[in-house]
Amino acid sequence: MKAIIMAGGFGTRLRPLTCNIPKPMVPLLNQPMLEHIFNLLKKHGFTEFVVALYFQPEVIQEYFGDGSAWGIHISYLLPDSDLGTAGCVKQAAQFLGRDTFLVISGDVLTNIDLSRAVAYHKEKKAQATLVLGRVDNPLAYGIVITRDDGRVSRFMEKPGWGEVFSDTINTGIYILEPEVLDRIPPEEYDFSKQLFPEMLYAKVPIYGYIAENCYWKDVGNLTEYRQAHYDALRAGKDLVDPGRGEWVKGNLIGAECYIDPSAELEQGVVLGDYCWIGPNVRIANTVMGASCRIGEGSKLIGCIIWDNVSIGNGANLKEVTLANDCRVGSRTYIGVGAVVAEHCSIGEDATVKAEVKVWPYKIIEEGTTLSTSLIWGERWSKHIFDAYGVSGLGNIEITPEFAAKLGAAYGASLSKGDFVISSRDHHKTSRIIDRAIMTGLASVGINVYDLRVVPTPVARYSVRALKVAGGFHVRKSPYDAMIMDIKFFDAHGKELSGAKEKGIENLFFREDFPRAEMEAAGEVMFPPRALEYYQEGFMRVLDHDKIRRAKFKVVIDYAWGSAVGIFPQVLGDLHCEVIALNSYPDGTRLTKGPEEFDQSLKRLGEIVGTLKAHLGVMMDAGAQKIYIVDDTGRILDDDLALAVMTLLVLKAKNGARIGVPISASRITEDLAQQYNGRVLRTKTPYTAIMEAAGRRRLDFLGEPRGGYIFPQFQPAFDSMMATAKLLELLAGAQEPLSRLVDQIPPIHMLRRQIACSWEQKGAIMRRLIEATRSEKVQLLDGVKIWHGKSWVLIMPDADKPFFHINVEGVNSEQSQQLLLRYTQMIQEWQG
């Protein structure tokens, strides 16, 4: 057999280490990662290799040549463009003949038994066998679900937590028959996203070989790079060949090294050739390349040191990575997670803060304290975007410095000269962060239309109305008084795609924004008619006369939000009698805790009942959700409110198309059936619901937490449009709201959160899938198990160590039984 090694990656997430070398050539235990792959393959009988190159191919070719020095033969493939994983292998067909072959990445660390994997492939007579592994956190990988006989039944490429149905992942190692090449077109094509799903659809036999009791790590970022070294140091020869040298008291010492007798090398140290270790030096859990010099009294704990590095006396380094030819002065401190690229010089008595990255050829003068906006290190080093956009502690994690850098990263993802809109709520810190983001955008040549204080739905609408490339909105979180949220929009006013968010994150972490020249810097402008566009579009989709004839008396709680600057005029134009509560902007009162929220709703109900109003509505501060009280003062809880809104839409339009998340009550289908309607189920995140509103031809979408969308206006949650449409639908129904509420059958929904560590989430989802194979199951978002007309939906939280359990039974007793059953099941699996 021959093997194809994919070695063309840019190694973006390993920057600055990969600024001048391709990722497979980054050293691991003083040997390039690609060399460890060659050694593994040679151990299992492979000697013929095709290495697919793309980024800086000459570095790999010059180091390995034709492979004869390693007792192997290497051919090189250099495509002209990025063809994707499968497209690249297709180009290698000329080297492969018509024999079975193996595909593996050149930048992983593993000791998987490839001989057993090949034997399994042949035993199963498979067209393709994927080597699978199990990991604690499967989010970053492609999940593969197999049947009992090992045949693959489903792929999930880099899923969200709601799609994590297993902890069994694709390692990127494939054993393929030559016929598979015939299925790959001569263009950009991917194994996981295109080829394997197409083969699965065509019922071509694809099997998964689960590599038990083996080690596999995708060395995908700087933290994983350090961890791979620590794992290799602990495992020793069981994982990789650490290279030549002499073992002395558990440490591998290279040729012609000098170690002062007073120096202390704790077990788990690798020294390359020609190293000099001075008096009273302490080194632990550290890998050091060739020709390094460590001065008297220095301390290195958990460090990765490449070749030809000099460290002065009394330096202190912990979990630091230093690339080739670096100089570190005496008494310098370098913090945990810092990475210094090649040819850098750090002066004496300097301090380099934790998680700081230093690009090649930089000089840091003596006595300098080097820091960046990433002083919060681990939080921002994992990811920036979460379910709410970008969230963090206001002016502590989301600082002006961070915001300016984020603005520059967002701007760098656009084209110079583009326009975007900016907006915010009226909190004073929102103004600071908003202006900092605008500064970052202008610095990379992006122009900004500043809408200043407007509700989020107005900002979304303005993106489309002004025909700009995107926008952002800064707000104080409605759920936590210490948190700020930054929401970014695409050119359609929708949330950014996951790929776009990842692109911005990559630009943010690489910190190499293309700054504009002085005359090409962006400008900040104030569009004069943005609010008018919104109001004109708003009124176009309403039946004004119908609402005016109803002469509604409405109690509105504006929750001190920015809708108060727009909506009173709209209600006035509709001839509504309005009793307004909390109807002035107050930036200090934008966040409500659960107790205050309940009290506000209760007070709203009392006022509606006392004044004999037709209904009451409480908006959230961001003007995206509404909470409804009927004409008797009765509060409509989450599922009941959604059911009433659905009923009103169906009464207004027979055969209406309704969209609700998979977590909503089945009452939606029951109501739709009565009025010849159709129901589309979506995933639960707000972004997924809005995406469905933009793609599907739906009349109404809603979710059980007060969010409603009328796509004919815009595919986004908008409390002002939801309130106006509620009035229009009520006017058409010609029935009091309380009577409509009484038409809704009882709903027996229960919801609960169960704490669960991140490490166990994937395993629990796998066990859940296995335990419910004989049941009727839906895998749209989480795992939904049907028991007759009753159902249970179990979803891992995307941002917190929780599982969400949603239950709906035919009666309250059955709901309680199902909730208890699945709660106990998950708790038992956690031990």
Record the SSE blueprint.
Blueprint: E1 2-6, E2 27-28, E3 31-32, H1 33-43, E4 48-52, H2 57-64, E5 73-77, H3 84-91, H4 93-96, E6 101-105, E7 108-110, H5 114-124, E8 128-134, E9 142-146, E10 152-157, E11 168-176, H6 191-201, E12 206-210, E13 216-218, H7 222-235, E14 246-248, E15 251-253, E16 258-259, E17 264-265, E18 269-271, E19 276-277, E20 282-284, E21 286-288, E22 293-294, E23 299-301, E24 304-305, E25 310-311, E26 316-318, E27 321-322, E28 327-328, E29 333-334, E30 339-340, E31 345-346, E32 351-352, E33 357-358, E34 363-364, E35 369-370, H8 378-382, E36 385-386, E37 389-393, H9 400-412, E38 419-424, H10 428-443, E39 447-453, H11 456-465, E40 471-476, E41 483-489, H12 498-510, E42 524-525, H13 530-540, H14 544-550, E43 553-557, H15 567-573, E44 577-581, H16 594-611, E45 615-619, E46 626-629, H17 638-652, E47 657-661, H18 667-674, E48 678-682, H19 686-695, E49 700-702, E50 708-709, H20 719-733, H21 737-742, E51 749-755, H22 758-771, E52 776-778, E53 783-787, E54 790-796, E55 802-808, H23 812-829
Parallel strand pairs: 1-4, 1-6, 4-5, 8-12, 15-18, 16-19, 17-20, 18-21, 19-22, 20-23, 21-24, 22-25, 23-26, 24-27, 25-28, 26-29, 27-30, 28-31, 29-32, 30-33, 31-34, 32-35, 38-39, 38-40, 39-42, 43-44, 43-45, 47-48, 47-49
Antiparallel strand pairs: 2-3, 6-11, 7-13, 8-11, 9-10, 14-15, 36-37, 37-41, 40-41, 45-46, 49-50, 51-55, 52-53, 53-54, 54-55
Helix pairs in contact: 9-10, 9-12, 11-13, 14-20, 17-18, 17-20
